[in-house]
Amino acid sequence: MEIINPILRGFNPDPSILRVGEDYYIATSTFEYFPGVQIHHSRDLAHWRLLTRPLNRVSQLDLRGVGASQGVWAPDLSFWQGTYYLLYTLVTSFYCNMYDTHNYMVTATDIRGPWSQPIRLSGYGFDPSLFHDTDGCKYVLSMVTDHRIPKKYAGRLVLQQLDAVTCAPLGAAKEIYAADPIYLEGPHLYRHEGLYYLFAADTGTGEEHGQSVLRSASVWGPYEMYHPSYAVRTDPREAWSMLTARHAPDHPLQKAGHADLVQTQTGEWYAVHLCGRPGKQRNAPDAPRFPNARRYPLGRETALQRITWAQGWPVLANGTALPDVTLPAPALPPHPWPLPPAMDHFDAAQLDIRWQTLRLPLGETELSLTERPGHLRLFGGDGLSARGSQSMVLQRVTEPHCDMETVVSFEPALFKQMAGMILWYDSDNYIYLHLTHDEQLGKVVTLLTAENKRYAYPAGFVPILCGFPVRLRMRVRDGDVCCSFAVGQAEWQPIGDALDVTFLSDEACNEGWFTGTMTGLCCQDLTGSRLYADFDAFWYQALPLDTMDER
Ligand code: 6LW
């Protein structure tokens, strides 16, 4: 059996992997989306399914007001004597001088929950993780942020012991490594054959990203950094990454780093890490951020690598620093899961697990699956820039080629009432195919685009008949989207020209850094009358990479 990377496709960064018996779990970051943290499950490391999102109560996670790409960062999943532990950072101030990066812990006795109320950990920076030593002692480690100008130290990692029962701090946090000028984060500790191994992501999270590994005879250090013989370094200040694609711009998996180790029940070693599949499109040479950078509209995804040990150091089994796109699966019985159906008929009492909302869950005033059975009813809410609740449901775009379709019944009476289908990066960047009302034309279908707050209606307003359900379709091919609509049983009609979608990426969005393109359904009623739209179904079909059929 072969494993094909990325194993978690579409925006799923900062993976933390855990094995409990024969079950494997990977937690990934969710930022401003609710519920918080995605936990995926596998029994063979090849087939993964989205299992649960642990931060699913507003009393645990309230993301009101939280900026794009802030919110929940870098979950760390661990298990000790019947209890699952999940640590994460809740970021509420970033892109500023003093970051507010609050670190929390929740626990559960069943991975599916319920998970506890969050306990705040004392924090020096983001990316906390918990290490359970073989003697039962617990330690929390994290990177350190530093607001002093010039920043005094980069790449500092700290360790603090916690009470093994209460998890209260035992003594002060101590610096265990300072890698100035190499920026280190995402630390994870392991014990292997009597030594402590410290994994840390290095050099940011873009195309320079990599993974460093250190070891020590004592948990408190001193830690020695591994200098792999295969490491390519073009600058003496460059990190000694055991995994990186920074010198291989044509490699299909870029941004490799932020790794976490796991050993199978049969004794094999693997590591998960984040990566990105670059598009062909680039930022403009004079772009304010990342000029000329390649764009990654699928965001940062999760990949898996086979690990072996060489002279007591963990290395990629392929003998290089480059991540494999395909690799042999471990000697575990294959355990495929049923594929999630492409069509969501909205027949169930709850939204399918693939859907997330922005910042808050949707309650009865925003959403109903029962008022009209077999339909998702969205009551018109605040506009697309709102940082509270929005009547919007979103799921990840997982491949560069995909089709989306819906059928919507919506009879707007005012231009302030809108409903339709969206491609979304954040509240300043989206492509919105929707129905609304125009004073002269009556009911219309239109496209609204927002690119870093530059707004346009590139297809004008097309009048349509009232009283019929309207089908809406978006087809994404290789960086462009073509939109169409059909009224009742009529033929599909294209609306507008093909539009670039690659600006829906960390590289192109001014406020973004860390997420990826989402797609879904939404409804606004800026009058406050909560006019609703009924969506009959949503169809999302990711297509194989070589599909380039008619649009
Ligand atoms: C993550 C950290 C990072 O917590 O990005 O650049 C953050 N580094 O490791 C969000 O993914």
Summarize the topology:
Blueprint: E1 2-4, E2 16-20, E3 23-28, E4 33-34, E5 38-42, E6 49-52, E7 71-80, E8 83-93, E9 100-108, E10 119-121, E11 129-132, E12 138-143, E13 156-162, E14 169-178, E15 184-192, E16 195-202, E17 210-216, E18 224-225, E19 243-244, E20 254-263, E21 269-276, E22 301-310, E23 313-316, E24 326-328, E25 343-344, E26 357-358, E27 367-368, E28 376-379, E29 392-396, E30 402-409, E31 417-426, E32 429-438, E33 442-451, E34 454-456, E35 461-463, E36 470-477, E37 480-487, E38 493-500, E39 518-525, E40 532-542
The chain binds (Z)-L-Arabinonhydroximo-1,4-lactone (6LW).
(Z)-L-Arabinonhydroximo-1,4-lactone is lined by residues 13-14, 29, 73-74, 126-127, 185-186, 201, 204-205, 258, 514.
What CATH architecture of the largest domain do you see? 5 Propeller
3D shape? globular
The biggest beta sheet is recorded as: 8 strands, antiparallel
Distance between the termini: 34 Å
Helix content, binned percent: under 10%
| Distinct helical segment count | 0
The share of residues in extended strands comes to over 45%
CATH overall fold name of the largest domain = Tachylectin-2, Chain A
Number of domains: 2
Quickly give the structural class. Answer: mainly beta
Give the bound compounds: (Z)-L-Arabinonhydroximo-1,4-lactone
Task: Give the low-confidence spans.
Answer: 547-551
**Rg, alpha carbons:** 24 Å
Mean pLDDT: 96
